[in-house]
Structures are given as structure tokens and as C-alpha cells.
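User: C-alpha cells for this one?
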Amino acid sequence: MDASFLNKRITIYKETTSTNSVGTPTETYSFLKKSWAGMRLLTGNTEYSQDGELPFTSVEFTVRYDPLINYKCKITYDSQDYKIKHIHPLGRKDFYRIIAIVWDEE
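Assistant:
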């Protein structure tokens, strides 16, 4: 893979569990790393349900291999959060191909 393809700057956050003031465990995200990535839009659609319209966007990120990246991470690019749905190692663990969807935490 040509490294010049990694032309987008992303931020990766790792899920951590902390407790609030009452002692209830809550999931929060802490900074893991900044990385260069390739990005490609895969699909975009709107699903309709009884709750209303649900926009759906799926993208593919290609990043250098890092064993700290897993399914409990999220990616932020251009002020948008993406939830990781699939991680596929490429080559001899040289790169990861990550399939993610737009994630709105509301």
C-alpha cells in the first residue's frame, strides 16, 4: 500500500469505564492517538422506522497497524464520530482496514 494514500488526520479514542459521583459505572472515551488514515465512503442511506428517519453512513478507514485499536475504540474525523464495526488486518499486520458507521451519541 502506498503511504501517500494516508492523507486524512484522524483521532482515535478508547473506551474506558469510570464511576460517577453515585458509584454507577459509566463508559467514557479517552484519547488514544492521532493517526494518518485513508478514508473512503462506502454507503449512505436513510432508514425509516417508527422512531422516524435514521440516517446511515458507512465509511472505510485504512490506518497503520496498531494492536491497541480494537472494537471498543471510536474514530473522530472532521468533527464527526465513527463507531467501529469491523477491523480487518491487511498484509502481515502492516495496516488495518476499519469499517465504521457515523455515530451520534444522542
